């Protein structure tokens, strides 16, 4: 068998469908669906976040994103609002009826994030934080596992294996670009990972074109290509005023630009026979 036994097709031939129940009905991530997660990189303030959350809900987005704890390269960069950010996410969920996903950075924060989020995210920098993987594996909520920017496919799937082996079978793989010799984009988008993962694993696969490219003008074409390649969904950063964003504004779409993207993605999803 493959070293990633529980994540492999050899142990489970049926595609895993992750389901999140909400007052508006069930949200599903997996084969046959095109599920869109959107929102600003970080929760920067209550009014701003609630405004963009309501706009995204009206456009038909399935899940809201927003960082309350942000891993930043520089210790002087905005690192999130912490608990206050989680409370804003919970309020947005109450108003819109949409589930929320946010990143957990530390095993000490899991219980806190668990109380507010519907989906836990393990970011690329923590992909091989094995203690964190095991702890979220003991939680009974879905986990988005982002690929490390220097991780091989096998390393990524073995990271997922830590979560699965700890008892949590609700794992969503997220391709967000890998670091190569190329410098004209933030990372190199590995779209070939999508169909390959579909062969190797039964787990849902989504793509984050915002972090993958680092430039908002590239988000739309890469997002469309990802859905055409078979991705089960997208994670896109949206901000009302990207030029004023405290985190990753250069890769964020305005709500207007996101609306155009969503229209185009729906057409491709229909061609691929996916529900949205």
List keywords for this structure.
two-stranded antiparallel sheet, 10 strands, single chain, alpha/beta, 276 residues, 8-stranded parallel β-sheet
CATH topology label: TIM Barrel
Query: In angstroms, what is the radius of gyration?
Result: 17 Å
Secondary structure category: alpha/beta
Assign a percent range to the helix content: 25-40%
**Which CATH C-level class is it?**
Alpha Beta
Q: How would you name the CATH homologous superfamily?
A: Aldolase class I
Spans of at least 5 consecutive residues whose pLDDT stays below 50 are none
Largest sheet: 8 strands, parallel
How many discrete structural domains?
1
- What fraction strand? 15-25%
- The CA-CA distance between the termini, in Å, is 34 Å
Mean pLDDT: 96
Give the overall silhouette: globular
The spatial strand order of the largest sheet comes to 9-8-7-6-5-4-3-10
CATH architect. name: Alpha-Beta Barrel
Number of helices: 9
Describe the protein in words:
This protein has one domain: Alpha-Beta Barrel (TIM Barrel), CATH 3.20.20. The model has no long low-confidence stretch (mean pLDDT 96). It is 36% helix and 16% strand. The strands form two sheets. An eight-stranded parallel sheet has the order 9-8-7-6-5-4-3-10. The protein has a two-stranded antiparallel ribbon with strand order 1-2. It is of the alpha/beta class and 276 residues long. It is globular, with a radius of gyration of 17 Å.
Q: What topology emerges from the helices and strands here?
A:
Elements: E1 18-22, E2 25-29, E3 35-39, H1 46-59, E4 63-65, H2 83-96, E5 100-103, H3 110-116, E6 119-122, H4 130-137, E7 143-146, H5 153-165, E8 171-175, H6 193-200, E9 205-207, H7 209-213, H8 216-228, E10 233-237, H9 255-271
């Amino acid at each position: 068998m493959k070293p990633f036994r529980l994540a492999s097709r050899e142990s489970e031939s049926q595609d895993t469908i992750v389901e999140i129940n909400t007052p508006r009905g069930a949200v599903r991530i997996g084969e046959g669906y095109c599920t869109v997660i959107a929102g600003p990189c970080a929760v920067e303030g209550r009014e701003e976040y609630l405004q963009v959350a309501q706009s995204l809900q009206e456009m038909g987005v399935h899940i809201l994103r927003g960082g309350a704890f942000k891993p930043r390269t520089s210790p002087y960069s905005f690192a999130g609002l912490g608990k206050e950010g989680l409370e804003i996410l919970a309020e947005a969920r109450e108003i819109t009826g949409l589930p929320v996903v946010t990143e957990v950075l530390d095993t000490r924060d899991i219980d806190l994030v668990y109380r507010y989020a519907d989906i836990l995210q393990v970011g690329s920098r923590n992909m091989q934080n094995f203690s964190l993987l095991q702890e979220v594996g003991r939680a009974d909520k879905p986990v988005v596992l982002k690929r490390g920017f220097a991780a091989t496919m096998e390393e990524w799937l073995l990271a997922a294996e830590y979560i699965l082996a700890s008892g949590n079978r609700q794992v969503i793989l997220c391709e967000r670009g890998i670091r190569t010799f190329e410098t004209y984009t933030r990372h190199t988008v590995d779209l070939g990972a999508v169909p390959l993962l579909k062969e190797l694993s039964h787990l849902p696969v989504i793509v984050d074109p915002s972090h993958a490219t680092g430039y908002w003008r590239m988000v739309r074409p890469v997002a469309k290509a990802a859905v055409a390649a078979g991705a089960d969904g997208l994670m896109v950063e949206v901000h009302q005023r990207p030029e004023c964003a405290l985190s990753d504004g250069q890769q964020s779409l305005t709500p207007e630009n996101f609306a155009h993207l969503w229209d185009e993605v729906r057409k491709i999803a229909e061609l691929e026979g996916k529900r949205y």
